[in-house]
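Late entry, written up from scratch paper. The run itself happened at the end of the previous shift, but nothing got recorded in the book at the time, so transcribing now.
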Amino acid sequence: MKRRKVGNLLALAVLATLVEGPMHRYEIAAKMRNRGKERDMDIKWGSLYTVVQNLEKHGFLEIVGSERDGARPERTIYALTPAGRAETEDWTRELLSTPAPVHHPFVSGLSVAAIIPPDEVIALLEQRSERLTRQIAGDRAELDKVRDTVPRLFLVENEFTIAMLEAEAAWVDALREEIASGAFPDVGWWRRMHAENIDPQEVAGMVERGEFTQSTETTQK
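Output as recorded:
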């Protein structure tokens, strides 16, 4: 992925919002919140002021005026520059065309799952599956509410999110069933490791030395 002068995805959300026309920061934030942008991007609202400043500093935004509403402080109005429009389009093209690593917390949990006994992992995966099912149902209900009033062009990110949740739920269910049925290749060794309180360092050493194989599990059950 290209290294950008302002790489925070909140910056892209700001730029995309300002494609609609000049606004002050409060209006930008209000539009993004109303559209649920925090569900699409990792947005830290406290960074908005700094992000807008940085976008102006690098020539992607320009100040085009200010306004005052009663006794409130004066609000600076920002507009997209030609460079800002080009950056918005280039960044969007890159995100649509180029896969990037995603650091999913679930993957982090899977990477150390061996420290928990398999029967407990089965129960935890069942809990995850139930929560995913509820989340999918809720997201689908929300999507169905607006399908007749919002063009699909502005809902495709919601469809993708639901598709990814459904794929995750199916994978979680398959893994849970594999461990529970004993079909998971390493489940015998995994159970023995916890039943006999085998030192995890010993197991890690075997894996690193290439000594942990399918035959190891079979002969040491």
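The mean pLDDT is 90.
(Scratch paper discarded after transcription.)
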